[in-house]
Specification:
By secondary structure, the chain is of the alpha+beta class. It has 15 helices and seven strands. The chain folds into three domains: 110 residues, no CATH class; 97 residues, no CATH class; 97 residues, Leucine-rich Repeat Variant (Alpha Horseshoe), CATH 1.25.10.10.
């Protein structure tokens, strides 16, 4: 997925390395819906002094007012070439070649280029009209936008059927969190969305993370509720790991209880979640797993690593016990954790 949660002090933010649809729509010179007509080809200058990869696209619809030819030769300028395939219908975000000094000499051959790279492709197949419509809305909104206008459009993204739009909306909402904390209407709508099975578990966790820290919002209770609703081990593990970011006694207690479940994957997730100094009250429980003969290698080593991340004096003492009293990988890892902590 795509959601990385971190907090201070509650749950945290969603980290994305790519530009969102909002950013593409607001920054590009020209936006078109186009059919990709070819894979990458290579153009060479008549004197052989320069070579440039490009692809052909047929303009289906221009979302800006610019008059365009029916067919464009576009060169990509990005880390990682876009993975468009011949026959794809895509949203292309284009910049004028003549506006960049380093490319201006090629403007006669390639009027436009794109900075969309691998992972930045927006394919608009049948049923994906939401993508185009929302891009147009962001473009129309422009840079002089109010909080309410942005909020309403992000809520519209979350109401769409496209998961990528959901993920990006959560990321963009985080930039508005200060205003969001005073917006009871939006909080109520986002809370309802976080409880809806229409969204994926990762997105629901992301919304709970977004709302954490909002006055009177109980992020822990919402995560506990979600963990009780989902049945797939992978989904439960995701929720449990996210809960580790919450810094309160009730969460520590809830995570300690997960150590007693029979599924090793759930135990592993709970140990990962407990591996923070603010869950130091769980050190006796984690230490008991670390030395338990009944614990699998996976679970036992997860417990040792959790002690190393908690790193309190009690956790260090537990690591010392593991290092000297148990043979095998757990003891080796415990000693490595002690060496790491002592070197700090």
């Amino acid at each position: 997925m795509l959601l990385a949660l971190s907090t201070a002090p509650a749950l945290a933010h969603v980290v994305f390395q790519r530009q969102s649809l909002r950013q593409w729509a607001q920054q590009a010179d020209v936006i078109v819906v186009a059919d990709i007509l070819s894979g990458l080809a290579v153009w060479s200058a008549p004197d052989g002094s320069e070579h440039q990869e490009y692809f052909k696209a047929r303009v289906v619809q221009s979302l800006t007012e610019t008059q365009l030819p029916e067919t464009l030769d576009v060169f990509p300028h990005a880390e990682g070439e876009p993975r468009f395939k011949t026959g794809d219908r895509a949203l292309l975000f284009l910049d004028r070649t003549g506006s960049r000094a380093e490319f201006a000499h090629m403007a006669h051959r390639f009027p436009y280029f794109t900075t969309q790279g691998a992972g930045d492709e927006w394919i608009v197949d049948a049923g994906d009209a939401d993508i185009t419509a929302i891009a147009v809305r962001w473009r129309t909104l422009g840079r002089n936008r109010t909080y309410k206008a942005q909020r309403d459009l992000l809520l519209l993204q979350l109401d769409s059927s496209i998961r990528r739009l959901h993920v990006e909306a959560i990321s963009d909402f985080l930039k508005l969190k200060h205003q969001l904390q005073r917006d009871r209407e939006a909080i109520e709508r986002l809370t309802a969305m976080s409880r809806s099975s229409r969204l994926g578990v990762g997105e629901r966790v992301g919304l709970i993370g977004l709302l954490s820290g909002v006055p009177e919002y109980a992020a822990g209770a919402e995560l506990f509720r979600l963990a009780g609703e989902v049945s797939e081990t992978r989904d439960r593990a995701l929720v449990i790991r996210a809960a580790g970011r919450l810094r309160d006694d009730s969460t520590t207690t809830w995570l300690r209880d997960r150590l007693h479940e029979s599924d090793p994957a759930i135990q592993d997730a709970a140990l990962f979640a407990l591996g923070h100094p603010w869950h130091s009250a769980a050190v006796p429980d984690v230490a008991a797993v670390a030395v338990s003969p009944a614990a699998s290698l996976r679970v036992g080593t997860a417990a040792v690593r959790a002690l190393g991340r908690i790193a309190t004096p009690e956790a260090r003492a537990a690591l010392q016990t593991v290092a000297v009293s148990i043979d095998g990988p757990r003891a080796t890892i415990a000693q490595r954790e002690l060496d790491r902590l002592n070197a700090q």
